[in-house]
Specification:
Layout (H helix, E strand, L loop, with lengths): L6 H17 L4 H16 L3 E8 L2 E10 L2 E10 L8 H10 L3 E3 L12 H6 L3 E9 L2 E10 L8 H93 L9 H16 L5 H47 L8 E4 H11 L1 H6 L3 E5 L5 E4 L1 H21 L7 E8 L3 E8 L6 H4 L18 H11 L3 E7 L3 E9 L6 H4 L16
Parallel strand pairs: 8-10
Antiparallel strand pairs: 1-2, 1-6, 2-3, 4-5, 5-6, 7-9, 10-11, 11-13, 12-13
């Protein structure tokens, strides 16, 4: 014997199953999918549509057909633009919050003349409001095209309960979606804020580092300038006193040389008046005095050379200290002519060390500035290149290249060599004032002077170096129209000579 299921028990179980299924979803698309599938299955409909309120508008969110059994998500079309849905029924349900059930829709006295029903002629129609706290939040519309009286009151009751649960689930999903969207916005805002804080902190750190470097450099320059000024006065005084005994006559002969001449004259005047034994002793004594005078003459000559080098160093330090007061020039400087002039002065030195120089500069190439500034930059870099080549004891080509490449925005003056290269630890400090790998001959101001003069014209200095293969220094100078306006406003002034810059 086959037991017939009680329709009410079946409907209660369906309500519980449907409510649990809908309530188990947290995201709106899944809630819509579950609601439409369960509604069609429980109501026996062929087609269903879910419309939800978005603000003050009722929009079509999704539709489903049992053949094929696919939920199609709509692109939120306004209800009034959906020609396949009965507008009169939708409006009535939204307005009255009442369920509409049609057993034979085309013959219904109230809604049978609706354009969608008149055209499509669905037999059974069910339209339910989704109510949340007494307000319509959506409409569930179901149809069967061929069978009348499909939506039995028991099934309608099931769907009413389901619609009530669906309204809650939809609002919960919306709230969750809004919360997730807000959380995502907060996270995005926090990430942007954190990034902004990181960037700002880095900017502040960089600014602080630049400020500390500027203060340090200003202090160094001020102290160096003051020290060099005092030392120059002292050294000049020492040089003056030295001149009294070293190089006093017209032939720049020292007192030592003059004493030697007088000793010889004294010996010649007295030797014929002295006994033989006394004359020999006197001659020995005169020779010792003469030797001492020669030693003293050599020492005074060395002292004079040391004083000259010290005075040259103080001049370089003073010039470095005054660079902050420099103004860039505005005249046209012929670069090749300048380079050739510097090389003529050092021609013998370069030839002695077997250094070949290749000039790759157009004869008509010019740079706007002051010739003394460019002379100092080129001279310092050339002297550094020469020293690097002289340090390379291995046999191989000793070559220096000088080139000028121009584009629309900048001019790049490059001086490269095939020397020993610059070690990384030296490269990290080589632009620091007074840092030198040749403390016995250099002041450590050559490269800092080049960098300062390049920055005077809004430019930078770049370095590429590889151990054993050489180094390339590039002075990148922006064209006049690309320089900062604040720098361009500085008037040109005649600078002190910087032509004797020493290598760093």
């Amino acid at each position: 014997m086959t037991e017939r299921l009680n329709p009410q028990l079946f409907d209660v179980a369906a309500i519980i199953q449907a409510a649990q299924a809908v309530a188990s979803e947290n995201h709106l698309p899944k809630v819509i999918d579950r609601l439409l599938r369960i509604s069609v299955a429980n109501a026996g409909a062929q087609r269903a549509a879910l419309l939800l309120c978005h603000g003050q508008k009722l929009l079509l969110d999704a539709t489903i057909r049992i053949d094929p059994d696919v939920v199609e998500v709509a692109i939120l079309r306004p209800a009034e633009e959906c020609s396949d849905l009965p507008q009169t029924i939708l409006n009535y349900v939204v307005r009255t919050k009442q369920v509409v059930v049609l057993g034979d829709a085309p013959s219904d006295a109230c809604f049978g003349r609706d354009p969608a029903i008149a055209r499509l002629k669905p037999r059974s129609v069910l339209c339910l409001p989704l109510l949340y706290r007494g307000s319509v939040t959506g409409v569930l519309h179901l149809e069967h095209a061929t069978v009348p009286e499909v939506f039995h009151p028991t099934r309608v009751k099931v769907l009413e309960w389901l619609a009530a649960q669906a309204a809650i689930a939809v609002e919960n999903a919306r709230l969750l979606g809004a919360l997730e969207a807000a959380s995502a916005e907060v996270r995005s805002a926090n990430e942007k804020l954190e990034q902004a804080v990181i960037e700002r902190t880095r900017e502040l750190a960089d600014a602080q580092a630049r400020l500390i470097a500027l203060e340090k450099e200003a202090t160094e320059v001020q102290m160096a300038g003051g020290f060099a000024h005092e030392m120059r006065n002292i050294l000049t005084g020492a040089k003056t006193f030295l001149a009294k005994i070293h190089g006093v006559d017209a032939d720049r002969r020292s007192l030592c040389a003059a004493n030697n001449d007088m000793l010889q004259e004294l010996y010649l005047l007295t030797r014929d008046h002295l006994p033989e034994g006394t004359r020999r002793d006197a001659a020995t004594l005169f020779r010792r005095i003469n030797i001492n005078e020669e030693v003293m003459h050599a020492a005074l000559s060395d002292i004079g050379e040391v004083l000259d080098r010290a005075l040259a160093s103080t001049r370089v330090i003073l010039k470095y200290a005054r660079l902050g007061q420099e103004r860039r020039g505005t005249r046209s400087v012929r670069v090749r002519q300048l380079v050739e002039s510097i090389l003529r002065e050092s021609e013998g030195d370069f030839a002695q060390h077997g250094i070949a120089v290749e000039i790759r500069v157009d004869p008509d190439a010019v740079l706007d500035g002051d010739e003394i500034h460019f002379d100092s930059m080129v001279r310092n870099l050339l002297l550094n290149a020469r020293d690097a080549l002289c340090e390379n004891s291995e046999s191989g080509e000793r070559r220096i290249g000088i080139s000028l490449v121009e584009n629309e925005q900048s001019s790049v003056l490059q001086i490269d060599d095939t020397g020993v290269g610059i070690p990384p630890d030296v490269r990290a400090r080589m632009f620091e004032p007074f840092f030198s790998t040749k403390p016995e001959t250099g002041t450590g101001l050559g490269l800092p002077i080049v960098r300062k003069l390049a920055s005077l014209y809004g430019g930078t200095i770049q370095v590429d170096s590889e151990a054993g293969r050489g180094t390339a220094f590039r002075i990148v100078l922006p064209k006049a129209e690309h320089r900062a306006s604040s720098s361009a406003s500085l008037p040109p002034e005649p600078p002190p000579s910087l032509s004797d810059g020493l290598p760093g």
